[in-house]
Amino acid sequence: MRHRTLPAALTSFLILGGSAGAADLRFSTWAGGDGLALLQQLAQEYGAKTGTNVKVEVTPFADYSRKLAVQIASGDAPDIGWVAERDVPTFIASNNLANLSALGKDASFNLNDFATSSLALWKRGANLYGIPFSNSPLVLFYNKDLFKQAGLADPTVQYAKGQWNYTNFQKAALAIKQKTGSSGARVMRLDPKAWAGGLLAVLWSSGGGVYDKNMKCNLNSAGSLQAFGLMQNMMFKDQSMPRPGDQTSFDGGKLGMYFDNISYAGQLKDAGFKWGVAPLPKGSAGRVTQLGQAGYAVFSKGKNQAEAVNFLKFLASKENMARTAKFFPPPRQSVLKSSAYLNANPAVPASALKTALISQLGQARVLQTDTNWLKANDLITGSLDQVFQPGANTKAILDRTCQTVDGL
Amino acid sequence: MASHLLARREAREGFLFALPYLLGMLVFVLLPLVAVLGMSLTGWSLLDAPTFKGFANYAKLARDLEFRGSLGVTAIFTVGIVALNLTVALLLASLLNVRLAGIAAFRSMVFSPVVMPIVAWSLIWKFLLQPQGPLNTGLQHLGLDANLLLNPKTALGTLIVIEVLKAVGLNTVIFLSALQGVPPEQREAARLDGASPWQVYRHITLPMISPTLFLVFLVTVIGALKVFTPIWVLTGGGPAGATTTLIVAMFKQGFTFFEFGYASAIAAVLFFAVLLLTLLQWRLRKALVFYED
């Protein structure tokens, strides 16, 4: 008897597998903090309304696409979720997003409320593969205290006078560096791999960019080289711009200006200094800011597509987008222009939001990429490591990069 | 007869006790290994179904300049780590192999980085090596335009030093115990015969610890080929691919570009490289190792 119990115990130990309470819908997101709490609240409300149980699954942004791809590959895809801008072309090309073009005919959803430009990333011909919930142009955050100490006019004042351009941006950064000892300006994010956030606006404003209209590499064009030249001067000659890898952040109070999405204001709640938001400077080719997007999409390998589309309609409805707008600039025009939205954040007055954000949307651009973007992005990250070195031969480096990118 | 039955029953129970480990080994090590070899013959972007492509991935590897670059990086990284680690470990072990008051404190100090979590270790170095961080500014005061981790020329060397500082304690302790196993009479006899300290070290001590030296060499080589975490945390393979070792290239292909078939081909190359090196080293053992039972 004793000898029979051992194998039995072993077997039951090995077979032990839990079956947790199954959800009707699985919603995948990288949200955190209050934004996540709101999504969970919305999921609960949807459950109460329809009887459909929605489980919200969270993966940090850095691992998000990786986790999603592994889930899809192992037949464990969520039904619906957030999709980041960088992944949209790849996910559409591999047929992993469901076609939502039927929403165009749904009067209650009112797809016309979304600006055409805000849907460009998600459309292929007549097909629609996602609905953006965030349409966020980069704005300039500036430290009012440092501007005052350096005796400079605020960017908003210079903007009103029509003088807010990259020349004056560079001058302001240098003055802050020289008179206060703090860093002048940072264009890119702390993580050098996230170079696209910030740098693109500078490239576009001087007539350059990553790709031209025919999707050929444009990083070695005259406009791009001019933009890189400006940044190299600020990094190595003026020393007013932190180099890639430096961890000086705007919320620490030792940085005069910083490009980021308006949602960054959430991290400045406890800032020990006065700050404001302004439009980005103007370059030789205009004032082109970068539009960051993220959207809701239904996964074609999910198990419950019809219900997932209903949940998507609920999340992206006018009423609920007005609620998520607290964290993400809404692509629905009716919400964007409502006074409720403009007055939602006491730290950013409605007038500043209008100037820095809404008035810039007309010239804002989304980075259009193709299915090779993940590889191209890696290549470009590598070559930018070389470009942002003192005395770098920028033209030669970027010629080589473009040759490789075009050859992918 | 009865004892025969008992022996069989004991053997069966022994097997049952070993079964969880064997199953784990089978499911989590051997099957994936075979699966990787199979996957390396497919085109699989993880987002769609795999398709059989024969040896196309290997043909692509042969043409891939980045792959060639990462082979070079891996070779430099491995040789650098082995040379530096073994030299420093042997040196430290010889220095620590004395009877002095407080020597235990020094031994603990050398060993302490080994027990530190690797990510914490890497993050501390990342902080110290910021462009305007303490180490780079210190070097800048000496007139060098140093940005150790973000300059393609210095990044790999910096990683080698960081990795060796982390791991050298373990090899030092192993060498120390080997050195303490060398009988003092033999060294004393050599000295009486007029041998210089270097001759004693070279002809008595080193041959006596050669089995340990060989084992440590083997383990360090294989370990260096498998280093991933500090590279990923500190440089992510950059700047400009300067620290993309084979294992980092494999991870990037698989989990950044979702090219699972191609990543599996790199994994297969790495696997056979380690296998080949191990076989080669076992052959060399006969020529290099003395006093082995």
From TrEMBL, chain A:
<protein>
    <submittedName>
        <fullName>ABC transporter substrate binding periplasmic component</fullName>
    </submittedName>
</protein>
<keyword id="KW-0472">Membrane</keyword>
<dbReference type="InterPro" id="IPR006059">
    <property type="entry name" value="SBP"/>
</dbReference>
<keyword id="KW-0732">Signal</keyword>
<keyword id="KW-0564">Palmitate</keyword>
<keyword id="KW-1003">Cell membrane</keyword>
<dbReference type="InterPro" id="IPR050490">
    <property type="entry name" value="Bact_solute-bd_prot1"/>
</dbReference>
<keyword id="KW-0449">Lipoprotein</keyword>
<feature type="signal peptide">
    <location>
        <begin position="1"/>
        <end position="22"/>
    </location>
</feature>
<dbReference type="Pfam" id="PF01547">
    <property type="entry name" value="SBP_bac_1"/>
</dbReference>
From TrEMBL, chain B:
<feature type="domain" description="ABC transmembrane type-1">
    <location>
        <begin position="71"/>
        <end position="281"/>
    </location>
</feature>
<dbReference type="InterPro" id="IPR000515">
    <property type="entry name" value="MetI-like"/>
</dbReference>
<dbReference type="GO" id="GO:0005886">
    <property type="term" value="C:plasma membrane"/>
</dbReference>
<keyword id="KW-0472">Membrane</keyword>
<feature type="transmembrane region" description="Helical">
    <location>
        <begin position="263"/>
        <end position="284"/>
    </location>
</feature>
<feature type="transmembrane region" description="Helical">
    <location>
        <begin position="21"/>
        <end position="47"/>
    </location>
</feature>
<keyword id="KW-1133">Transmembrane helix</keyword>
<keyword id="KW-1003">Cell membrane</keyword>
<dbReference type="InterPro" id="IPR051393">
    <property type="entry name" value="ABC_transporter_permease"/>
</dbReference>
<dbReference type="InterPro" id="IPR035906">
    <property type="entry name" value="MetI-like_sf"/>
</dbReference>
<feature type="transmembrane region" description="Helical">
    <location>
        <begin position="67"/>
        <end position="92"/>
    </location>
</feature>
<protein>
    <submittedName>
        <fullName>ABC transporter permease</fullName>
    </submittedName>
</protein>
<feature type="transmembrane region" description="Helical">
    <location>
        <begin position="155"/>
        <end position="179"/>
    </location>
</feature>
<keyword id="KW-0813">Transport</keyword>
<feature type="transmembrane region" description="Helical">
    <location>
        <begin position="104"/>
        <end position="124"/>
    </location>
</feature>
<comment type="similarity">
    <text>Belongs to the binding-protein-dependent transport system permease family.</text>
</comment>
<dbReference type="Pfam" id="PF00528">
    <property type="entry name" value="BPD_transp_1"/>
</dbReference>
<feature type="transmembrane region" description="Helical">
    <location>
        <begin position="200"/>
        <end position="225"/>
    </location>
</feature>
<dbReference type="GO" id="GO:0055085">
    <property type="term" value="P:transmembrane transport"/>
</dbReference>
<keyword id="KW-0812">Transmembrane</keyword>
